[in-house]
Amino acid sequence: MARFRTWLAPGTRLVILGLDRLLRRIYGIREFWTDPECILRIARERSPETVRLADGTLVVKGAPGIGLHFWNEHIPPIDPAGPDLAWGLKFYRRLRKSLQVLAGYLKNNNDLNDAVALWAEVSFPAEPGLGRYTRLLEAFGFEFKPLPPPEGILGRVGRFFQHLYAWALIWTFNPPSLRRKNLFAAERGRLWVSKAELLRRHLRQ
């Protein structure tokens, strides 16, 4: 049985990697910076909901915007004992640099002029919960808004597979981060920031 699991894991990871590449192609997810320390990719998307952001920006459902997607291969690997201060600092620096480069990219690319805001779907484990990350999110200008409850059985099934796919990606790219976490009990939502706020905070002069 142990030998079977040893054989199965690499094959399963290859399948998930292939699916990840396929979905990136389907949804037009692309790189804006190829440096190994860049931990974000982007895609032109339409706003999935109507939200009012803290700076007053109204994002109407269907408005043009930019979806943010983590570049999983570039996320710093977590030690089997769990994330420590050194890992947190490395992640913070990579995210800050990625947002700075992204701000310059948005400033200089006319094909993204119509983008109103940027957003990313994320999950925060029930323990320690969202509160642990609040100051970090605020420092980068992001607002967290929980996903609305799924509607009907199809919505619940879809939400289940969202959680399952998120778990599969973490298991493939950074499995130690799953220690003592129940991803299916995670608080799932979107991080939002207006394009104007992103440029104000992160565009280097």
Task: Tell me the layout of helices and strands.
Layout: H1 2-26, E1 40-46, E2 51-52, E3 58-59, E4 64-70, H2 85-108, E5 117-124, H3 134-140, E6 143-146, H4 152-173, E7 187-194, H5 195-202
Parallel strand pairs: 4-5
Antiparallel strand pairs: 1-4, 2-3, 5-7, 6-7
Write a concise synopsis of the structure shown.
This protein is of the alpha+beta class.
Please explain how this structure is put together.
With 205 residues, the chain is an alpha+beta fold. The protein has 5 helices and 7 strands. The termini are far apart.
Low-confidence stretches: 1-8
Count of alpha and pi helical runs: 5
Envelope shape: globular
Determine the N-to-C terminus distance: 59 Å
Read across the widest sheet, the strand sequence of neighbours is 1-4-5-7-6
Q: Helical percent range?
A: 40-55%
Structural class: alpha+beta
Beta-strand residue percentage: 15-25%
Mean pLDDT: 81
Order of helices and strands: HEEEEHEHEHEH
The counted number of beta strands is 7
Rg to the nearest angstrom? 18 Å
Biggest sheet, open or closed, and with what strands and sense? 5 strands, mixed
Characteristics:
alpha+beta, 205 residues, five-stranded mixed sheet
